[in-house]
Automatic annotation (TrEMBL):
<dbReference type="InterPro" id="IPR011990">
    <property type="entry name" value="TPR-like_helical_dom_sf"/>
</dbReference>
<dbReference type="InterPro" id="IPR046960">
    <property type="entry name" value="PPR_At4g14850-like_plant"/>
</dbReference>
<dbReference type="GO" id="GO:0009451">
    <property type="term" value="P:RNA modification"/>
</dbReference>
<keyword id="KW-0677">Repeat</keyword>
<dbReference type="GO" id="GO:0003723">
    <property type="term" value="F:RNA binding"/>
</dbReference>
<feature type="repeat" description="PPR">
    <location>
        <begin position="96"/>
        <end position="130"/>
    </location>
</feature>
<feature type="repeat" description="PPR">
    <location>
        <begin position="1"/>
        <end position="28"/>
    </location>
</feature>
<protein>
    <recommendedName>
        <fullName>Pentatricopeptide repeat-containing protein</fullName>
    </recommendedName>
</protein>
<dbReference type="Pfam" id="PF13041">
    <property type="entry name" value="PPR_2"/>
</dbReference>
<feature type="repeat" description="PPR">
    <location>
        <begin position="198"/>
        <end position="232"/>
    </location>
</feature>
<dbReference type="GO" id="GO:0048731">
    <property type="term" value="P:system development"/>
</dbReference>
<feature type="repeat" description="PPR">
    <location>
        <begin position="401"/>
        <end position="435"/>
    </location>
</feature>
<feature type="repeat" description="PPR">
    <location>
        <begin position="299"/>
        <end position="333"/>
    </location>
</feature>
<feature type="repeat" description="PPR">
    <location>
        <begin position="436"/>
        <end position="470"/>
    </location>
</feature>
<dbReference type="Pfam" id="PF01535">
    <property type="entry name" value="PPR"/>
</dbReference>
<dbReference type="InterPro" id="IPR002885">
    <property type="entry name" value="PPR_rpt"/>
</dbReference>
Length: 572
């Protein structure tokens, strides 16, 4: 009876049946213990599982029954205690492939992939051959830590054992793994070798492409799937709709919407919400609203999706209206909803509404529990110019990270409070928070606006100390100030020393800066370097022409190479 309850998914009833059995004085046997431990796994009942473990120990069953030992390892691993699973594993005198695989699975579940791979090697040293599930665990571990070489080694071993054909689980893990590792060609090779390419295999490939940013490949995969005569199901459509939203493929999105309607799948909340997101990401907010209005169930996920997209497209007022309607409908916002609506308050300067929401989230203790929500509160107050309130929120956060500090620093920068910007930056360092690229860009721009060359140099030097590599934005900002402050030599040194020197786009940006500043000397230097990189780039030449004609220096241009369109400046 206990086993039947578990097979049908009635785990609480199975546990109740076990307790009733004990009350009636009926002693459980090994099969009963295995079944009830499985039930504890399903509902993560660690305390009850621990009690059953104690009963097993009292009866001396652990040393005598391998199946019970394996069930205990599985229970502890799935309940979040891999260390206890290890203890049981070490107690088992003779282990089989299930013992090792259960421990490996527990390690992977809790982010200990290195230990899982060590298990994979050790079990083979002890003469235990991995089965398909063991291989699947090893491959998942490789995908998680990005070890392509080890993954290929395990894949080769799997094929040597003749297990590859027809093993649906491992083949799908192989597909997921290679896409996650960025080896889509290998994933496609595995896919093409499958004896049967059913809708589930296609879905693994589709979802893998989308989750790892290969959205164009996902759309081509969907088209190929239909060409091969495989009918898409709900999972195929969800992945393809996500891909359409990512690249703005609106026309294909319309076609997928038609398939959804024709197949009667619109009633699925998940597909409805994905359609809403697709239209919104393509900028079709009216269609997104239409999809939302037609949803059979408008839950917190769908309301939040609509609000988030309004915020994303800078429709702050519409987002606020949507939030009010949501609350009037009796839907309770979650953390993500609050994060989105606080951003909307910041965008439109609705500080009073932001304060009301702040009170609401504080009642539920959410800012302390959710760092992103706390950071969004800091951002909302900072962007609205209420910097004292932003500071107050920041001080109360249990974990202040670089995002929290950046929001406050940017707020002070927005209103031109240079002293407060520098003070906040120093406090961030005292708080043992490492500044990032954004932190430095904000303070460098403040130095630039304040014509503070010495401070600018100080912060620029600090970037290296904190391991932040300057981007083109940082360099352009510093060069701008160097030129205006008369430090031309420093500007030229920066250009020579930093890693964007081989990027023609970077040189174009610097040429535009020279044109704006009217700095001919620096413009000439940059032009010479740009021509070395790409003498055929007419755009560079034209921009340089603009730089020189912008000044009082008389310039004459002539073609040296008419085929390549290269201009050579001749000073007169």
């Amino acid at each position: 009876m206990i086993s039947g309850y578990i097979d049908q998914g009635y785990t609480e009833e199975a546990i109740g049946c076990f307790e009733q059995m004990q009350l009636q004085g009926i002693h459980p046997n090994a099969a009963t213990f295995v079944s009830i431990l499985k039930a504890c796994c399903c509902v993560e009942e660690l305390e009850r599982g621990g009690g059953i473990h104690a009963e097993i120990e009292r009866r001396g069953l652990l040393d005598r029954n391998l199946v019970i030992g394996n069930a205990l390892i599985d229970m502890y691993a799935k309940c979040g205690f891999p260390a206890r699973a290890e203890e049981v594993f070490d107690r088992i005198p003779v282990r089989n492939v299930v013992t090792w695989t259960s421990l490996m699975s527990g390690y992977i579940e809790h982010g200990q992939e290195d230990k899982a791979l060590k298990c994979f090697e050790q079990m083979q040293l002890e003469g235990i051959s991995p089965d398909s599930l063991t291989f699947a665990c090893g491959l998942r571990a490789c995908a998680s830590i990005g070890d392509t070489l080890k993954a290929q080694e395990i894949h080769a071993d799997f094929e040597k054992k003749g297990l590859s054909f027809g093993d649906f689980v491992v083949n799908n893990v192989l597909l997921e793994m290679y896409i996650k590792l960025g080896s889509s060609a290998l994933a496609e090779h595995v896919f093409d070798k499958l004896p049967t390419q059913d809708v589930d295999s296609w879905n693994v490939l589709l979802a893998g492409y989308v989750e790892n940013g290969h959205v164009e490949k996902a759309l081509k995969c969907f088209e190929r799937m239909q060409y091969e005569g495989v009918s898409p199901n709900a999972s195929s459509l969800v992945s393809s709709l996500k891909a359409c939203g990512s690249v703005g493929a609106l026309q294909m999105g319309y076609e997928l919407h038609t398939i959804v309607n024709n197949d009667g799948l619109f009633s699925s909340d998940f597909i409805g919400n994905t359609l809403l997101n697709m239209y919104a990401k393509c900028g079709e907010m009216s269609k997104a609203q239409e999809v939302f209005d037609n949803l059979m169930v408008q839950n917190v996920v769908s309301w939040t999706a609509l609000i988030a997209r309004y915020v994303e497209h800078n429709y702050g007022e519409e987002a606020l209206d949507c939030f009010e309607q949501m609350q009037m409908s009796g839907i309770i916002p979650d953390c993500i909803t609050y994060i989105c609506i606080l951003k909307a308050c910041g965008t439109v300067g609705a500080i009073d509404k932001g304060r009301v929401i702040h009170i609401e989230v504080e009642k539920n203790g959410l800012p302390e529990a959710n760092p992103i929500l706390g950071n969004t509160l800091v951002y909302m107050y900072a962007i609205c110019g209420a910097l004292k309130e932003a500071e107050s929120v920041l001080e109360k956060l249990p974990l202040r990270d670089v995002v929290s500090w950046n929001a406050l620093i940017a707020g002070y920068a927005e209103i031109g409070e240079c002293g407060s910007v520098f003070s906040c930056f120093d406090r961030m360092l005292l708080d043992k928070v490492k500044p990032d690229s954004v932190s430095f860009l904000v303070v460098l721009n403040v130095c630039n606006r304040a014509n503070s060359f010495d401070e600018c140099q100080k912060f620029f030097m600090l970037m290296g100390a904190h391991g932040v590599v300057p981007t083109l934005d940082h360099i352009t900002c510093v060069i701008d100030l160097c030129c205006r402050a008369g430090h031309l030599h420093t500007a030229i040194q920066l250009i020579k020393e930093h890693p964007f020197h081989s990027n023609i786009v970077a040189w174009r940006t610097l040429l535009n800066l020279c044109r704006r500043l009217g700095n001919v000397s620096l413009g000439r230097h940059i032009f010479e370097h740009a021509l070395v990189l790409n003498s055929e780039d007419l755009t560079v030449s034209n921009e340089t022409s603009d730089t020189y004609t912008f000044t009082d220096v008389k310039m004459h241009w002539e073609y040296e190479d008419r085929d390549h369109g290269m201009f050579v400046p001749l000073m007169t």
